[in-house]
Design goal:
By secondary structure, the protein is mainly α. It has one domain. 54% of the residues lie in helices and 0% in strands. Helix 8 packs across helix 12 and helix 11 packs across helix 12.
């Protein structure tokens, strides 16, 4: 009975300490931020305009294919990755999947003013300009038509890996995704992306373990929430696309998660059974002593 009292006191003090310290520590290490906003209500988007994909096709071809490839529509890359990165700082994305990956309102806002929509205006001061020009001189309906066209050529389905490649791999590598062939290295050469971003973007192989899924969702949706002044742009992914990005990072960096979580309850049951037998053994031995 004495041991039970001691155990109860230890448990109570442990719980009191945890409740008193852990929330404060968590609030300091992981400050609360607003939940991800997948509607991008702060951007100057489509403003309810409905686009015409046929009209948008001509506009996209006239205004975008000088820098961007659209392989789905038969427009190959204008230059190789190294040359493109040297010219722009980062490899321009192929637009074949843009209509699926990105929120339509964000995409429209990005076409109008890339730096403002992606929240990196602080990078482009003292004469520095975003590598993609603003198209805010276009009529709103024309931009809506361009978005409609990009949506019309976008694939209906993409694998998690394909979404990651198109959404993230221009800047970030994830080397554990293909250790032997190295196909998951960042597309932009290190020297170019370092000059453009100010530092080398990290390899994302283990970020699902070091940051956690919730942090990554908040950060990808709006990096400024967690790291004010960062050079990483707000990407503008839809909720579904962002979930596929995080899922791929989990496939690569935490492939044993399901197995580990399935083992947890079994191990706890084992500990409970072991504790019962240990308690019974202890009672039998101390009964002989007394």
């Amino acid at each position: 009975m004495k041991e039970l009292k001691i155990l109860a006191v230890v448990v109570l003090f442990t719980i009191a300490t945890y409740i008193g310290v852990e929330p404060y520590a968590h609030s300091q290490m992981h400050p609360h931020v607003e939940a991800p906003d997948y509607t991008f209500k702060d951007v100057d988007g489509l403003n309810t305009l409905q686009g015409n994909a046929q009209v948008g096709e001509a506009l996209v071809q006239a205004n975008c294919t000088a820098c961007h490839s659209i392989e789905k529509a038969g427009f190959p890359p204008v230059m190789d990755n190294a040359s493109a990165a040297a010219a722009y700082g980062v490899v321009p994305p192929d637009l074949s999947t843009a209509g699926k990956l990105y929120n339509a309102d964000y995409l429209a806002a990005f076409i109008k003013d890339p730096a403002t929509a992606s929240k990196v205006s602080h990078k482009f001061v003292d004469g520095r300009v975003h590598p993609m020009p603003q198209y805010n001189w276009m009529q709103p309906q024309e931009i809506a038509d361009m978005v409609a066209y990009l949506q019309s050529i976008a694939p209906k389905e993409m694998t998690n890996k394909e979404v990651f490649q198109d959404a993230c791999q221009r800047c970030h590598g994830i080397k554990y995704g293909d250790m032997q062939k190295g196909t998951m290295a960042a597309k932009s050469p290190v020297e170019n992306i370092k000059a453009y971003m100010g530092k080398i973007p990290p390899d994302l192989s283990q970020y699902i373990r070091s940051r956690g899924a919730q942090y990554l969702h908040e950060f990808v949706n709006d990096p400024q929430k967690h790291l004010e002044g960062t050079a990483m742009p707000r990407v503008g992914l839809t909720k579904a696309s962002e979930e596929q990005v995080i899922a791929y990072m989990e496939e690569v960096g935490d492939s044993k998660k399901a197995e580990r979580e399935a083992l947890g309850p079994k191990f706890l049951i084992y500990l409970v059974i072991f504790a019962i037998f240990a308690w019974l053994w202890k009672i039998s031995k101390w009964r002989d002593v007394h």
